[in-house]
Amino acid sequence: MERVKAELLPSERLDDLLTHELHIIQSPEVFSFSMDAVLLARFASVPRKGQILDLCTGNGVIPLLLSTRTQARIDAVEIQPRLADMARRSVQWNGLEEQIRIVQGDLRSYHLEQGYGVYDLVTVNPPYMPASTGDQNSNEHMAIARHEIHCTLQEVAAACSRLVRTGGKVAMVHRPSRLAEIIDAMRAVRLEPKRLRMVHPHAEAEANMVLIEASRDGKPELRVLPPLIVYDANHRYQQELMEIYYGQVSQEG
What we know:
Helices cover 27% and strands 26% of the residues. The chain contains 8 helices and 11 strands. It starts with 12 loop residues before the first strand and ends in a 7-residue tail after the last helix. Strands 3, 4, 5, 6, 7, 8, 9, 10 and 11 form a 9-stranded mixed β-sheet that branches. Strands 1-2 form a two-stranded antiparallel sheet. The longest helix has 13 residues, at 81-93. The chain has one domain: Vaccinia Virus protein VP39 (Rossmann fold). The chain has helices at residues 35-43, 61-66, 81-93, 110-114, 140-146, 153-163, 179-188, 239-246; strands at 13-17, 22-26, 51-55, 73-78, 100-104, 119-124, 164-174, 191-200, 209-216, 223-224, 228-229. Helix 6 (153-163) packs across helix 7. A hairpin with an 8-residue loop joins strand 8 and strand 9. The chain is α/β, with parallel strands linked by helices and 253 residues long.
């Protein structure tokens, strides 16, 4: 599909998206994507075909990255109109309208529009901090992205369970401090954790991210993968990170 130059608002910029010849619209006024989204897009078990859903999509970075790994149709849901509009224009800019659909809506009620058990894979990079946590950013867009203002962890898990098919996968990135709560929330809605990987900034540092993938109605059997170390002793990306950010990303499924 021929790429159409979407209009940029005065505060926005167009950034390169790694080495995939893609571009993404970003703005300092709203929450920009970071490493957690990139790692989730690489960690998830992506089907070659079928249907994928990304919840809490923000400016659409995960659907854009997933489009390099699959021919599947990708829907993406974002509750904030500003971010959903940016994501929609990024999809247009990259000529991916036939593969990616951006929906401005609430993940808690999205099943009423789309139905149950529709997707082969659901990815989600949800807000990490409970709404009661202090120091909420005065910027509304960033506060919603970071705090559970519009959805709790339990509501995110329930939405994923409603929308993924039996045997389908749900992949999430979150904070290790909430891992026990994540597993409890998943199992309460018939999502069985199957793969887990901790992400450490340095070899000697505690993990600061956890990647977890569950299967709808799967049998209990959790694989704990080797840790992912981001930086070496010279504060340079480790080889695996270099490959994730700048190397060839192969399809899996």
